[in-house]
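Key result, reporting period 2: structure in, sequence out.
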């Protein structure tokens, strides 16, 4: 059975946990086994155990982010050894782009990244869909290994590089389950703060999008006007004539983040509404689906995904108008 090694920065541990959950079906089917440094037992030599896996595991996932690239251990030791084995045909390296960063110029930049088109996981409207792309890439890689583990490649002597104390959480030695993830809890304060942060993100998203729309499309002008801490207006003009107007506000009757066509100071109606929800690992946003007839209601939206849904309500009619 092919073994999968996670090379990642501990700053991305939450995303690694979410990815491992998405790989659960492959593990249940006996398609793969997974390993990462949180499985190192008490009394084991940290560098030695990691080197053993980086030198023998069949599939190596590089969980790429700014923190991954900035980490001397991840980049200079794990990634370089992974690419040596990939180039020698001893392992399959898959870059998993977690967060936006300048990864195309790295040694693994020549490889096809996942999710689709190398779009970072955190920029997908539905994070589960992004991680599903990764799971499919791992399944495909395991299939290319013909479902049987090749003899362990003989690698160079174990690296003497040290890991800082406390970087790995000790756990009990010996055989054990990999199902060790515990549920996280989120307070109402956490949810309220996430909602407020998301509103600010959407405001910046609209302001920047309006400016870029104007720069790219002669004859069009975009205006962003912040009314107060909880409301902004967005207007698009074509040759001086308004062709789209929108209000986005926080709170009101529906209590979430709300979109309304036109400019209004009323908080009693909405064409679309976003609310904050949580699973056992993260906070996310959900759409009421009023503008899409419920099609987007089940998606776990990131802040960017939520902003893109609301921006789409402004721009889609203009794009359809010119689709001929």
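The corresponding designed sequence is given below.
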């Amino acid at each position: 059975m092919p073994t999968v090694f996670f090379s990642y920065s501990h700053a991305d541990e939450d995303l690694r946990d979410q990815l491992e959950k998405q790989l659960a079906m492959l593990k249940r089917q006996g398609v793969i086994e997974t390993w990462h440094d949180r499985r190192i037992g008490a009394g084991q030599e940290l560098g030695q155990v990691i080197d053993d896996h980086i030198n023998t595991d069949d599939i190596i996932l590089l969980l790429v982010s700014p923190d991954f690239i900035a980490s001397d251990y991840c980049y200079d030791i794990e990634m370089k050894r992974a690419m040596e084995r990939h180039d020698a045909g001893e392992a399959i390296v898959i870059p998993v782009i977690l967060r936006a960063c300048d990864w195309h110029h790295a040694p693994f930049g020549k490889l096809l990244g996942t999710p689709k088109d190398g779009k970072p996981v955190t920029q997908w409207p539905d994070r589960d869909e992004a991680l599903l792309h990764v799971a499919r890439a791992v399944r495909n890689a395991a299939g290319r290994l013909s479902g049987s583990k090749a003899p362990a490649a003989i690698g160079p002597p174990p690296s003497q590089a040290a890991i800082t104390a406390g970087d790995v959480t000790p756990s009990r030695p010996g055989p054990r389950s990999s199902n060790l993830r515990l549920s996280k809890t989120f307070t109402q304060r956490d949810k309220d703060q996430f909602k407020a942060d998301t509103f600010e993100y959407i405001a910046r998203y609209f302001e920047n999008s309006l400016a870029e729309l104007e720069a790219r499309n002669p004859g069009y002008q975009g205006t962003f006007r912040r009314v107060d801490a909880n409301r902004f207006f967005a207007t698009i003009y074509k040759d001086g004539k308004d062709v789209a107007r929108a209000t986005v506000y926080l709170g009101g009757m529906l209590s979430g983040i709300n979109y309304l066509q036109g400019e209004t100071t009323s908080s009693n109606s909405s064409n679309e509404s976003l609310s904050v929800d949580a699973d056992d690992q993260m906070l996310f946003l959900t759409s009421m689906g009023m503008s899409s007839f419920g099609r987007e209601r089940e998606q776990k939206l990131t802040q960017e995904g939520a902003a893109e849904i609301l921006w789409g309500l402004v721009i889609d009619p203009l794009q359809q108008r010119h689709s001929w």
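The chain has eight helices and ten strands. The longest strand covers residues 241-250. This case is discussed further under Risks and Mitigation.
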